[in-house]
Amino acid sequence: MALLEVKNLGISFGGLRAVDGFNITIEKGQLYGLIGPNGAGKTTCFNMLTGVYTPTDGTITLDGKDITGKKTVEINKEGIARTFQNIRLFKEQSVLDNVKIGLHNQMPYSTLTGILRLPKYRKVEAEMNEKAMELLKVFDLDKEADFLASNLPYGKQRKLEIARALATNPKLLLLDEPAAGMNPNETKELMETIHFVRDEFDMTVLLIEHDMKLVSGICEELTVLNFGQVLAQGKTSDVLNDPQVIKAYLGE
Amino acid sequence: MAKLNLKSMKKSTKDHIITFAMVIVVYIIVQTMITTGNMSSLMQGLLVPMCTYSIVAIGLNLCVGYLGELSIGHAGFMCVGAFSSAFCTKLLQDSIQNEVILFLIAIAVGTVAAAFFGFLIGIPVLRLRGDYLAIVTLAFGEIIKNVINVLYIAKDENGFHFAISDGNKIELSEDGIWLINGAKGIAKIPHLSSFTAGVIMILVILFIVYNFVNSRTGRAVMAIRDNRIAAESVGINITKFKLMAFTISAAIAGAGGVLYAHNLSTVTATPTNFGYNMSIMILVFVVLGGMGSFRGSIIAAVILTLLPEVLRGLKDYRMLIYSIVLIVMMLFNWAPKCIEMRQRIAAKFKKSAKKEAA
Q: Does the keyword ATP-binding apply (chain A) (predicted)?
């Protein structure tokens, strides 16, 4: 059974049909790419998958469970985590705390326990500190754990966002243009990190990207969106050689 | 790895210890001054109000500094706390002789009543984005004050009597007592507040808020402040945590109101004590003391309460100097150059301390 199954998803904003008839099937453990020209509706698809927008029609099934129209918080609990095109970190808080906020729903103590500093608080906090530091180490951020998130260089902020998303213990990770604004070296490093995340955390990744090197380098399958509709779908090499895709997006 | 964690933990705990120590040291100094007779009665009269304002400022700081929502009606919550607790102690003062127990009950009643109103206001308003909370709390502060001004409650052997807007409707038997007498407020409240009680309340509240902001819940609240959309995306229930923080903030303001009411023999809801001006004054304490710094709120509340009294001798220049102090404090806390200078001085201090140690 596929991990994510999206059938005939569509959304209209007033008279504008932003996405129409969007179908996608992602198997567990896949690295899947979603590409297309600006304004094609890629981020809108992400927003529907994560419950920011409620789809006008169609269904989203995650791991055999219908999650169409659920709220963002519920969808996150079901197992979809995401990063954002324009980085959205908790800027006034430390790098470590950013990850710990991601661990929020895995901390089994109540507000009152926290206020009274019961032994359970100390135990859980210590465990979670360790867990967060482990995650930071994966992304080579452990030395900056005490920094304010806003003081990190751009590339590391992107990494921290991925670490925070992973902290919520998702089944499916959505990355919205993870390589945007990165230099070739950073992009290369990011590709390795994404591979590593997939193997180490047994993660399924769906990503939006414009960097064709990254897309062809790591994605196993692709979907191309154009004007809100699926233009091509399939194995990366096939899709990238599709004359229609070349004409609409890649350029001849 | 573990070392790094310890370091970050230590920094925040150190900060908390400094705040607690500061409050205790001030308390000891003031107590010695009182016992040795070095403090004027005028100043002694200011001690409890100072504690009250500190408490309400801490509460408001939780709302403004940590939740990132502007409330300009915290005097309203103070008012709820003051009147509900004073009402309660007036009823109970004959049956409960022990002052400490009576005061604890008063605090419980005032806090719960203020929290209830905070919760009630929060349910619709905190679901919205934007500055709606400021508008609604502003209105709440004015409404609650005006409602209390037309509320008449009395008690005699026939039971309770209620009236709204016209107190003459109540025909009270001779040994009946007025509990709330409209614009005359509540009279003959037992004097339960003291500077010691105020300081203990400040310490307890500091303990609660510091632990709150350093727990999972506090982090969630700050996450919502920093980036609402991202907080939602990592599974934080926005409305729940906003409501929780706002309710606690209102409850603390209510506790401040309890202290305030039991320091006066008669508490009335006038614009000067529970009105818009009071709310703004507390907001000034919070902003000048630094948003997100509970210690700063206390310091600002104390300085700005003392100042007008200290400057009383200067008569006409009083408010002029007050405004200059406001500006200086604002610059000292927020101007980038000033922050830089403070850090430089702090670094120098550390260096010389190290040298001495060596």
A: yes
Helix (H, G, I), strand (E, B) or coil at A208: strand
Mark out the alpha helices in chain B (DSSP H runs). 2-35, 41-61, 74-92, 99-125, 132-149, 195-213, 216-226, 228-233, 238-261, 271-274, 276-289, 294-310, 318-334, 336-357
Q: Which CATH superfamily is domain A31-204 in?
A: P-loop containing nucleotide triphosphate hydrolases (3.40.50.300)
Q: Is A156 helix (H, G, I), strand (E, B) or coil?
A: helix
Q: How many residues does chain A have?
A: 252
d(CA B71, CA B91): 32
**Sequence ranges of the domains in chain B:** 40-279
Q: Which residues, listed in sequence order, are joined to residue A61 by a DSSP beta bridge? A: A5, A66
Partner residue opposite B232 with nearest CB, options A72, A89, A111:
A72
pLDDT higher than 50, residue B3? no
ipTM exceeding the 0.85 mark: yes
- Its pTM stands at 0.89
Q: Is A121 in contact with B234 (Cβ distance < 8 A)?
A: no
DSSP-assigned states of every residue in B107-154: HHHHHHHHHHHHHHHHHHHTTS-STHHHHHHHHHHHHHHHHHHTEEEE
Q: Cα A235 to the chain's mean position, in Å? A: 21
Dihedral angle computed from the Cα positions of residues B323, B304, B143 and B72, in that order, rounded to the nearest 10 degrees: 70
B143: closest CA of chain A, how far (Å): 32
Residue A89: its chain B contacts at CB < 8 A? Answer: 226-227, 230
CB-CB neighbors (< 8 A) of B4 in chain A: 133, 142, 145-146
Supply A48's token pair: 């529907």
For chains A and B, what is the number of CB pairs under 8 angstroms?
A: 106
Are the C-beta atoms of residues B102 and B294 closer than 8 Å to each other?
no
As a whole number of angstroms, the distance between CA B128 and CA B63 comes to: 16
Beta bridge partners of A6: A24, A60
Among candidates B189, B201, B249, which has minimal Cα distance to B51? Answer: B201
Handedness of CA B290, B319, B78, B27 (dihedral sign): positive
pLDDT (tens digit per residue) in B237-280? 999 999 999 999 999 999 999 999 999 988 988 888 888 889 99
